[in-house]
Specification:
mainly beta; single chain; binds zinc ion; 3-stranded antiparallel sheet; OB fold (Dihydrolipoamide Acetyltransferase, E2P); 5-stranded mixed β-barrel
Length: 133
């Protein structure tokens, strides 16, 4: 099995996502994840700086997956959803139940992140998980 080495640039990108690093605009304060080169609101006036998100937020929408893709077949059923971070951006991810019934508005924090490389296709997967606070 031949594993291709990802480029340094790609690893930097992955590391940013893995650590929930996005950016925010110094001009208006709007936060983005994933990071944007220019602020949607300020355009040419935007001054972007890196920002690490707390990982705290609330469930914005979710769905329970009962028939998963092969990659996650051992984990079904599981919940995937969109979490609205306290800082504003929406992030997709798995949401662990941990014995709590997940609802719209349930407070969550980022929990466990896992990343793996599919050696055959050279694809890299990353995702964060959220769990109820
Ligand atoms: Zn702005």
């Amino acid at each position: 099995m031949l594993m291709e080495k990802p480029s340094a640039g790609l690893w930097r990108k992955i590391k940013a996502r893995y650590n929930l690093v996005g950016n925010s605009c110094k001009t208006c304060g709007k936060a983005y994840f994933p990071p944007r080169i220019v602020c949607r609101k300020c355009g040419r006036e935007s001054k972007m700086e890196n920002k690490k998100f707390s990982g705290n937020g609330e469930v914005y929408s979710f769905t329970k997956i009962r028939v998963p893709p092969d990659t996650f077949k051992d984990e079904a059923p599981y919940i995937v959803g969109v979490v609205k971070l306290d800082e504003g951006p929406m992030v997709e991810g798995h949401i662990l139940e941990n014995g709590t019934e997940i609802k719209i508005g349930t407070k969550v924090r980022s929990a466990f992140r896992r990343m793996y490389v599919d050696g055959e296709e050279g694809l890299i997967y990353y995702h964060y998980k959220f769990e109820p606070v």
